[in-house]
Amino acid sequence: MDVTTSLVIPTNFMGLLDFENGHLKDMHVHDDAGGLWMFHYSVQQNDIIGDVLCVDWIEFVQHKNVKVEDKVIFVMEDEAMGGRMKIEVKRKITLFGQDIWADVK
After folding, report:
1. Quick one: which of 36, 37, 89, 102 has the most CB atoms within 10 Å?
2. Which of 7, 84, 16, 88 is nearest to 53 (CA)?
3. What is the pLDDT of residues 1-53, one digit of tens each?
């Protein structure tokens, strides 16, 4: 995970988005705190991985203080919730000798 430039995801993991190589699009994403974020994204060709989704998310990363070791999860909420995209950030903490993943707010 890159927290300094852009998030790069193989497109086969993001089957719900409309992809056109080279075109810049917007993805509206809700966070756990109820905030709405607009991530610009494009699809680019990578010689090793194939098509990748490049997401401009640096403002989000800085605001949430996302770290390389954190888990970032994109969830498409069900149609009853309007079919909106949600982002969750989890950070591993050790509590009483046990590792747990806590929400980053």
Report:
1. 89
2. 7
3. 678 778 888 877 665 555 666 667 888 899 988 899 999 888 888 888 888 88
Domains of the chain by residue range: 7-103
18 to each of 33, 64, 85, 88, how far by Cα in Å?
26, 27, 13, 21
Total residue length of the chain: 105
- Which amino acid, one-letter code, is at 43? V
Closest CA to 39 of 21, 30, 50, 26: 26
Position 9: which residue type?
I
- Other beta carbons within 10 Å of 6: 20
- pTM over cut 0.85: no
According to the CATH classification, is domain 7-103 in 2.60.40.3880? no
